[in-house]
Amino acid sequence: MSELRYTEDHEWLRTEADGSVTVGITAFAQNALGDVVFVQLPELQSYEQGAEASTVESVKAASGVYMPLTGEVVAVNDQLDGSPELVNEDPLGEGWFFRFIPADAGAVAQLLDQDAYDRLIKANADA
Amino acid sequence: MSTETLQKTPLHALHLELGARMVPFAGFDMPVQYPLGVMKEHLHTREQAGLFDVSHMGQIRLTGANAAKALETLVPVDIIDLPVGMQRYAMFTNENGGILDDLMVANLGNDELFLVVNAACKDQDLAHLRQHIGAQCEIQPLFEERALLALQGPAAVKVLERLAPEVAKMTFMQFTRVQLLGKDCFVSRSGYTGEDGFEISVPANAADALARRLLAEPEVAAIGLGARDSLRLEAGLCLYGHDMNSLTTPIEASLLWAISKVRRVEGERAGGFPGAAQVFAQQQNGVARKRVGLLPQERTPVREEAEIVDEAGTVIGKVCSGGFGPTLAGPVAMGYVDIAHTALDTPVWAIVRGKRVAMKVSKMPFVAQRYYRG
């Protein structure tokens, strides 16, 4: 299992052995959202980077989950249909959203690494 | 609005100490949730007891022999015959019958009325009262002077009677003066959750001690505005500015029940409130649209402002409040729809992110009210 990469929208990405990339939202994001009650998962299709591929609904509000990189979604976490609370309980594990094949395999490494993301969180906390 | 200009309730420091997430609401820095989270706070209130800081709301005292008669000229509600020690739901109407605000009115006896109005409307309400009935009674805003706490849930009575045994005898909508921790409080057996419970008006400088005392009881948890909203929505209760406003009448808002018999067309003191003719005409001839309960048939929450369409795709209304109901364990909403689609069980659809979500017109409350009626 490779190390995690992050986006400024508080998504995490993990490149799997088969080259697909798993996407979820971070612990920081789920905490900010509060209790997740519904996740609208993406279709199995291609999305451009930045497209709203998925929506996560907390008790309070709906928030978009954006495609971190251009690519084709090849799997979604159907478990979230019946158990959206997994996003809160295990955001980096069972609470994953979808897997995609990036159009540019090298692009994942260009995203934020753990240190950069930690600095982003700290900056948010200090703001 | 920047945080510097936000007002603070007397419990502000306590909220921070409890780890609340604060948000601006009606000009106040208010707790939207505590570390427990909206879902658990909601369920805790339905199962045990929740303590809410609603000190941002406006408390106003009217005094004078003509106070009740004067207030009746502004609301379609029987105030003159409101018994001493009782509270009643009312609304200020405008010349078109539109709702300026909704409020609670209690009769304290000795020609004294006690009003609780919405936070966002309180300055406007005060000006409205002064303009129209300022010459007929004394109007005293208690905005700075008093805090308001709500203790809601099936265990609320058990908790509050430890401080004042006499509250256990009160029934729904009764209102009385009570000493709590040695301070003069006004307690009503009412609330905004659909549960049994109390609203407690306490001197501002005694609010923190009272709140801490109540939170020290094992049944009580601090509850934020997030759960307050989901609780009232499940109870089918209107939120001013969302489910009604100056462009909706009590008839359109499905609040005919709140217009006292004696103030209706056939009543002894019919009319005499702003917009009475329009309200009566609507009551007689019907309205074009009405507020109804809506239950989404899928798991997708349907939120405020979502358009409502019929089977053919024609827009027939709009959602005014919507979200997730933790007790129902599913989405819940209310909205205004064209009158042809207001019958119970009528299928309608909301447009959410460009897609249709099936909903059914449903009776309210969505969760049974559990008021204590003795």
Oligomerization status of the protein chains: heterodimer
- Low-pLDDT stretches of chain B are none
Q: Give the second-level CATH assignment, the architecture of the domain at 3-57 and 144-234 in chain B.
A: 2-Layer Sandwich
Largest interface: A-B, 14 and 18 residues
Structural class determined from secondary elements of chain A: alpha+beta
Question: What is the H/E order of chain A?
Answer: EEEHEEEEEHHEH
User: Which bin fits the share of residues in helices of chain B?
Assistant: 10-25%
- Any idea what the CATH superfamily of the domain at 3-57 and 144-234 in chain B is called? Probable tRNA modification gtpase trme, domain 1
**Rg of chain A (C-alpha, Å):** 14 Å
CATH superfamily label of chain A: RNA polymerase II/Efflux pump adaptor protein, barrel-sandwich hybrid domain
What fold name stands as the CATH topology of the domain at 3-57 and 144-234 in chain B? Gyrase A, domain 2
How many helical stretches of chain B? 8
CATH class of chain A: Mainly Beta
Shape by Cα distribution of chain A: globular
N-C termini distance of chain B: 45 Å
Please give the largest β-sheet of chain B: 6 strands, mixed
Number of helices of chain A: 4
E-strand count of chain A: 9
Shape of chain B: globular
Tell me roughly what share of residues is in helical segments of chain A.
Answer: 10-25%
